[in-house]
Amino acid sequence: MAADSWSWFYALAFGVSLLKCLFLNAYHSTDFEVHRNWLAITHSLPVSRWYHENQSEWTLDYPPLFAWFELSLSQLAQYADSNMLLVANLEYCSPATLLFQRLSVIFTDVLFMYSVRECCRSIKDNSVSNKDILSRPIFILSVLLMWNCGLLILDHIHFQYNGMLFGFLLLSLARHLQSRHLEGALFFTVLLNLKHIYLYVSPAYGIYLLRSYCFTSENTDSSVRWKSFSPVRLVALATIVLSVTAMSFGPFIAMGQMSQVFSRLFPFKRGLCHAYWAPNAWAVYNVVDKILVTVGVRVGLLDSSSLPRASMTGGLVQEFHHSVLPSISPSVTILCTLVAILPAVLRTWLKPGIGGRSLVRCVVVCALASFMLGWHVHEKAILIAILPLSLLAVENREDAGIFLMLSTTGNYSLSPLIYTAAELPIKMLLMLMYSVYSITALSNLYRNQGPLLRPLEFVYLLGLVAVEILREVVYPLSPWQQTLPFIPLLVTSVYCSLGVTYSFIRLYLTL
Hints:
Elements (H helix, E strand, L loop, with lengths): L6 H15 L8 H15 L19 H17 L14 H28 L14 H10 L2 H11 L2 H16 L3 H14 L7 H13 L16 H24 L3 H8 L15 H18 L10 H4 L17 H21 L6 H17 L9 H11 L3 H17 L10 H22 L9 H20 L5 H4 L3 H23 L2
Helix pairs in contact: 1-4, 1-5, 2-3, 4-5, 4-7, 7-8, 8-10, 9-14, 9-15, 12-21, 14-15, 15-16, 15-21, 16-17, 17-18, 17-21, 19-21
């Protein structure tokens, strides 16, 4: 079958869409109500009240462009069930509401599928034309992206619109790989105005575009040729950024509501960690503090009555207060993140390369650094690193090994989001199938270059099986389930943080 026909791609995309339809009646999280409430707010209230409405605890906290997206969806939602658009109908979930919101995620994923196709067209594929399509990089990349188990679980069981958002990110990267930089800048600007979490990777875009687009040539030693700076290109980029941002934020600027909007977008009063600790440096930091507190109390160095309750028994479901180690402030996390991304940003400036691959690598490093060291990081943010890394994994053996470690560990770290018994076999099967495919497909792609996983890496990944058995089988039967219910989440977070940290270090060594 000729790869150039792309018939295999459409068959794959259709199969993924059918799989998503099987999850229509599956468990959904509170994010389902979040988005229903945002539909109601944007449809039923004037724009001036969107970022003030607080009848529900799930207030609007995405940038205005996403609010405009919700408003456009609400125009269709009123024909499915108008009651879902009443702000007072908290926790409303009729069968029509469920069907509409589930299908809205599936249909907006068309953008994600298109972006995957564009990424496939942008990568290097040195395979001979008559080679089996199943073994070619473009097919492997399509599966790694469209069948990503973490994304399927997040969007189509847990419920969110990450597929659409990642569609903009991947389409932006694809355009830069195709040297269509203005289009790439446009798509990324739209993405930032849809969800501000992608500010994590904005330094990579800023430095890359300044170096590779605004400077039109370089010296023979690859250093920047300062005289080649193009003010016209800089103005073109600025026009794109300002135009999209003005359309998004313009009405709120005119109404003098920017302070209110920013208070929703950047709630720094939240704790260092989310309810379930993302597997990053702060999860390890928290556990070390807990261990020091426990040891300190037992040897008489600390008085347990004077310690914050969360330090000893609060678990992972409330804001964490450090008792021995210094408390971490938002400014500290910002500084740590900036220091961590600096080498990658400098590398992109000094050696931007040709074809945009330095941008992709810098995006992955920035995303992973922000995940490791950011403030109130959600576990879902790991996908911002995993999905772009897929593009590098099908072109480079070292990146493929890092991808296997990061994707397996990162996707597994998302599993606590789905905690219902009925969905347990589904999420485990999805993760097992994806992990097995990733390992076998990439190992086959680089079969002449040696194994992708080192022995200790393979042992670590097998340890995830032990963590799952402990979490789902052993611990629920133990007497500690009632007194220390947070232990399985803690073990998952800390164990996965080891794999993510290791992947981060390996990625740094490739710079």
